[in-house]
Automatic annotation (TrEMBL):
It comes from Candidatus Hydrogenisulfobacillus filiaventi. Keywords: Ribonucleoprotein, Ribosomal protein, RNA-binding, rRNA-binding. GO terms for cellular component: ribonucleoprotein complex; ribosome. This is Large ribosomal subunit protein bL9. The gene is rplI. Belongs to the bacterial ribosomal protein bL9 family. GO terms for biological process: translation. PROSITE patterns: RIBOSOMAL_L9 (PS00651). One of its GO terms (molecular function) is rRNA binding. SUPFAM superfamilies: L9 N-domain-like (SSF55658), Ribosomal protein L9 C-domain (SSF55653). Binds to the 23S rRNA. Residues 13-40 form the Ribosomal protein L9 domain. Pfam families: Ribosomal_L9_C, Ribosomal_L9_N. It comes from the Bacteria.
Amino acid sequence: MRVILLTDVRGQGSKGQVIEVKDGFARNYLIPRGLAKPATRQAEAEAEAERRRQAAKAAQERQAAAALAEALNGQTVIIRARAGESGRLFGAVTSQDVAAVLKERGYTIDRRQINLDPVHLLGQYEARVHLYGGIEARLAVRVLPEE
């Protein structure tokens, strides 16, 4: 029996894929659990249209991420923090601090997208921002003492 998967099914396929399975597996497992529906001509046409929509959306997101990466690459984020005389910080500078500075500049970037180990010393560091798939931007993070 040909069915269209409504969700990713481990060992069978991914959402929207048309697969051939045994009749009993489809009738007794996939269809009752809402994991698949019978593959009629209309259902296959709808699934194909949805795949095209998803592909167009992914291409648009990828293009937006590439533009954002180009805008972010090479920027320097300056963060002022309290530090002792030896240059050791009272606390740490984290990706959350970098995300806050970027938000002030008008960029909406989640702290989980920023790869920066906690900084405990004054100085200059590099942060990587994961935007989409393989698209990544690199920022310079300068930690300076408070004035």
